[in-house]
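TA notes. Do not distribute before section.
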Amino acid sequence: MDHSIGYSGKITDSVHLHPSAGEYVLVAASSIVTRDLQDPHNQHFLTAHDDQITCLAVSNSGNLLASGQRGENSDIVVWDFASKRAIYRLSEHDYEVCMLSFSQDDRLLLSCGNTLDGKLFIWNTTNGHIVSSLAIIPSVFSQAPLCLAWGGYAKDYKLRPTTDY
């Protein structure tokens, strides 16, 4: 694909304004398109998936993107936004990755699969390793959760923010 015009999104949360406020990111089938807000011809196509992308997350700093897909290779691809290159392929989900969420400091990525997959992972974004995992179906839930969110930082006894979760 050379150029993208328009958008026909059927995936929830599939368009994101980049934190720099100069670009936006969207899902286009099995690719991610990054576009400049001022110049519609300034586009980049990120291609590393072989099936429909089902979820997209932009890190709080804007340095990373994460995208998940459905199908036989239900992988998560973590992208370096500046270079527009894939830096990790995370391959533990089966069937479909439904949700992705970066922690406040972007060091962790939370991923959740669909009801058939039934797994939740926390990934280290500095090396692509699994920090924690949980089989959430049927042990915790009867079906896949509908949303994911990080809680924030722990506060000390004087209610001051800390660097710990």
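Switch to the second chain here.
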Amino acid sequence: MTLPLTNAFLTFAITAAASFAADNTLGTWKLNLGRSTRAPIKSETMVREAVKGGVKVTTTGEGANGDPINFSYTAKYDGKEYPVIGIGAPFDSVSIKQIDSNKLIEERKKTGGSFQATVPTIVSIDGRTLTSTASGTDANGKAFSNTLIFEKQ
């Protein structure tokens, strides 16, 4: 008589495991400047691609002063630090933990500097909006908080 209960539990466990393996943050996302609160910037696009156990993120755009933004990182969802390469990022390492298919938490740091940020990232139920809310300490040691709203392309 315990067989139906066991089968139901196994089905639930397999479904739950599969949902954690999904990553709804993948895709191309464009920053909505009008809905975001952040230091001045002209444009930003983020491409998130699946890699085994994590993600490759490439961010491009243009700063307020016309300087290019072009950085990337590849990180697993294991909470370990991974290097950020390129130009325009205030951080040079990132660690990521996946909470579920719609939520990640990143820790961003600058080696030898005071920049440090915690960045929960959440994808909306309809999959069209990605919201990153960063809070931490900027390069000058001053506390900051901003919200970035990206739209799926």
